[in-house]
Amino acid sequence: MGKMGVGSIVCLAVPYLKKALTIEDAVEKVAETATTMAKTIAEVTEKVAEDVADVLPDGNIKQEILEVEKFAEEVDKDAKKVEEFIHKLDHIKEEIEAMGESIMNAAGERTEKENKEKKKKKKKNTPSSNL
């Protein structure tokens, strides 16, 4: 596969990459919103459970409320892990976008250079009209 083939593949792949990144952005926004909501609900649930457990006498109900509090703490921790993961994915996406731009720029420069070289060759091979 020659330079033209590679250039063609890159040119064909770019629109699909852009579409994939657009879809990824939408999914990321939904994931961030869901994570934020889960974290907020977990924090509120944890606080309410703690307050309720403080006023209840020892017994089964208090134990159940303390279990709810522990569960809410775990959900909050998991939501924070998901947020960290989303931020890592953002970083990876930015690196991929930078590589894609770099490849496109290099392909564009190469194509431009090849076009200039072709024009020079044509000028050399074209008989002079001054003769």
Please describe what this structure looks like:
By secondary structure, the chain is mainly alpha-helical. It has one domain (15-110). It is built from 2 helices and no strands. Helix 1 runs antiparallel to helix 2.
Could you give the count of β-strands?
0
Low-pLDDT segments: none
- What does the largest sheet look like? none
Order of helices and strands: HH
The number of helical runs is 2
**First and last CA, distance:** 41 Å
Helix content: over 70%
State the secondary-structure class.
Answer: mainly alpha
What is the gist of this entry?
The protein is an all-alpha fold.
Topology:
Elements: H1 3-55, H2 60-125
Helix pairs in contact: 1-2
Task: Give structural attributes.
mainly alpha, 131 residues, 91% helix, rod-shaped
